[in-house]
Hints:
Strand order of the largest sheet: 2-1-3-4-5-6
Order of helices and strands: EHEHEHEHHHHHEHEHH
Low-confidence stretches: none
Amino acid sequence: MTTFLLIPGAGGHPGYWSRLVPELERRGxxxxxxxxxxxxxxxxxxxxxxxxxxxxxxxxxPAEPPVVVAQSMGxxxxxxxxxxxxxxxxxxxxxxxxxxxxxPGQWWGATGSSAARREAGWEGxxxxxxxxxxxxxxxxxxxxxxxxxxxxxxxxAEPWPAERxxxxxxxxxxxxxxxxxxIAFQRRVAQERLGLTPYEMxxxxxxxxxRPVELADQLEALASGPA
Length: 227
C-alpha cells in the first residue's frame, strides 16, 4: 500500500482533499492531507515546507517513502519537500510549475497564463465559473461559506529557492476541463519547464473535489509505475 502526502494549493486548506482521503483509505492506502498556513503573513515558503515535513514524520506514519501530491500552487512546495526527505514519486496536479528564483506572483506572466485562458474562452475571472463548475452544488455552497483561506501577499512574493528540480520521479497530472489552467496551456508549460508530457484525466482545477474516485484511480496507477 502507498502513503500519499497531499499538499493543497493556494491558501493551504486541507479540506481540498476531503473527498479524496476516504477514497484512498478505502483502498488500503494512507492519506495525509497537510494544513499549510499559506494565508498567514507571518509564515513563508520555508515554514510551509517544514509543516509538510512534520506531517510526513508524525507518529504512526508509515516508514516507507511517500508519494507527494502537490496541487496547483502547492507545486512551489512539493519539490522542496522532495529535496529534504526520501520520496517514491512527486505528482504535480494541475500545477504551477516553478522556475528557480521565480515567485508565484511572477509565474502567471512568465507562463502566459492570461493569454492561454483567453484563447480557451475563459477570459476574466469568476470563482464559481472557473473553480467550481464541476464540483457538486452542495459542496460548493459549503466551501464558499466556510473559512476564508485567501493566500497571503507574502506567499505570492517569495521566490522559489531551489536551484534545480529535485532528482525524484516526477509526473504531471492535468484535468482536461480545467478553466484556470487550460489543458493546452498545461501541456506546453510541462514540456517547457520539465520536458514532460502530462497524464490527463477528466475534471476541472479542483479535481480532488469533483472526481475523487477517478483521481484515486489515477494516483494508484501512477504509484504502481507510470507507463
